[in-house]
Description:
Blueprint: H1 20-71, E1 113-115, E2 126-129, E3 145-146
Antiparallel strand pairs: 1-2, 2-3
Amino acid sequence: MIIQVTHRPHSKRQSRAFTLIEIMVVVVILGILAATIIPQFMGTTHDAKVSSAKSNIAELESAMERFYIHMDRHPTAEEGLRVLVEAPAGEEERWRGPYIKLLRPDPWGNPFQYRNPGTRRASGFDLWSRGADGADGGEKEAADIGNW
């Protein structure tokens, strides 16, 4: 038995690789899509951080109210927010905390601010994040986010 092998001539039309032009067209199309889609998501990061800061402030405010119920007072400005995780000196027996598991920074990595008595709220305390710029005050994206 004899097996005969025949070779077919190689033609350019049978090549299955992409040409440089085809690859460049695909890259340009992807670039155009990215240029139109990415700017729509740029503002969502800031909006998500603002929402997170508002949620964290609401959680801290709730913990402050539980502290008030047990201690019959809000924390002093000197005690600050740390009394939500550590008992104030000399009042360990009345303290029923921790009122929060961990005192986290705001979404921009800065500590939340606390003032008692408050200047923004007529009765009670002020609790706020300094926002994206990390400084008091500001407008638009640099505005403070507080419980007022």
